[in-house]
User: Fold HIT domain-containing protein from Actinomadura monticuli.
Amino acid sequence: MRADDTDCFICAAGHCPPELIPWYDRPLIHEPEVGTVIGAVGALVPGYVIVAPIMHTRSIRDLPKGKRSELLRLLDAVRSRIERHYGPATIFEHGSCRELEGRRPACVAHSHVHVVPGKYGLAQTAPQFTAFDSLEGMLAAADSGRGLSYLMFQEPGEPVHFAADPGVSQFFRRHIAAALGEADAWDYAAVPRWDNIRETQRTLAGQSAECSH
Assistant:
């Protein structure tokens, strides 16, 4: 498979040889049959990555349970690695969004969890979040809603929070950008932050990223 054989950049990152993938989408960590980790375009801070399953599915909730447990193990390992370099990190997912494939201003329809160094007060973004002790507990409780769009986040030292999708594109990124004092930087398509991606690649992959894009 070549990177231009699919409209899904996450599938391309998980299946194509690195030399056929744009530099910014090349996996930092890759576990065949489990998942892949890439630097997030629009990285609001260095160390911002996304963790995605190899299986093309619309949310981690929609993964088969065996694949889900494998991905959660990878997510835990990635979060720990990010935190060793960048300090405590927040995770979030906009699951089962209803956009077409590809990287678009609204959503990407291949399941992926954001790992973002820092804490941003996301519990204040909406009143309807339900708290769970663990991500596993949230997923088990939400199994009956497979296929429905939702929001999930966990900040350092806090429970996992879950809510129905309010229909706002890049919901959490808007709030994180505002918390950083950069309210206009929320849209990754408009503000890709190549410098932060390169910093993450240098730190996690131990090598310099390519400079062309």
Observations:
- Confidence is low (pLDDT under 50) at residues 1-5, 100-106, 207-213.
- The beta strands are 29-31, 35-39, 49-53, 89-95, 113-117, 130-132, 150-154, 160-164.
- The first strand starts at residue 29 and ends at 31.
- The CA atoms of residues 14 and 36 lie 6 Å apart.
